[in-house]
Amino acid sequence: MKAYYDARAPEYDEWYLGAGRFAGLDRPDWDKDLRALRQAIAALPPARTLDVACGTGFLTRSLRGQITGLDQSDRMLAIARNRLPEANLVQADALPLPFEDGSFERLFTSHFYGHLEPVQRAGFLTEARRVASELVVVDSALRPGHAPEERQERILNDGSRFSVYKRYFDPPRLVRELGGGRVLLATSWFVMVSSPAEAVGTVESPEENQPGRRTPHRDQGLCPPSPWGGML
Asked: What's the half-sphere exposure (Cβ side, CA atoms, 13 Å) at 156?
């Protein structure tokens, strides 16, 4: 994944802005839902916050309080540094997190949890509970035309191709997977959930996440190329 996000860094924000390969796509309510997401993030009480997989800082800038951003991609962080001059930005992996127990009041992460496979998910939830008293997860809502779990072919502006694991979420079931909490935002494109430190996640399989939906097996190969919809 690091090679993919390093390569994608210069065009990463085009997904949000409807530019590049996303220009002219039919994404009903996209702008409205994105505004609602940024407002929901800004409405979080100011806190000592760690943003895991902060990327270019596109959503990080809506957080209030003392902000630390972590990402494994130095090319992503180079953009974030210009956008977030007051934030503490750290280049490191999320597993394990390079911080002491209880270092933060909140761990925030957007469009990262949905890329984690089961063993990684369990490890991440353990690390999140270790370093912060609240976990806030933003990810892609389950939409028509997508299975809860997919392996997607991502094509960048230069024509390079990457295989990416991606999940989509039903809000109440994401709350259950995180072990409890509350839905802060549910739109046709985005899900945002807050979960307290004492919650114990279940790390459900995609089949449990959406009964009756067909989930592509990884041996079936890549999903057909798509305009990425609610993906990041």
From this structure: 17
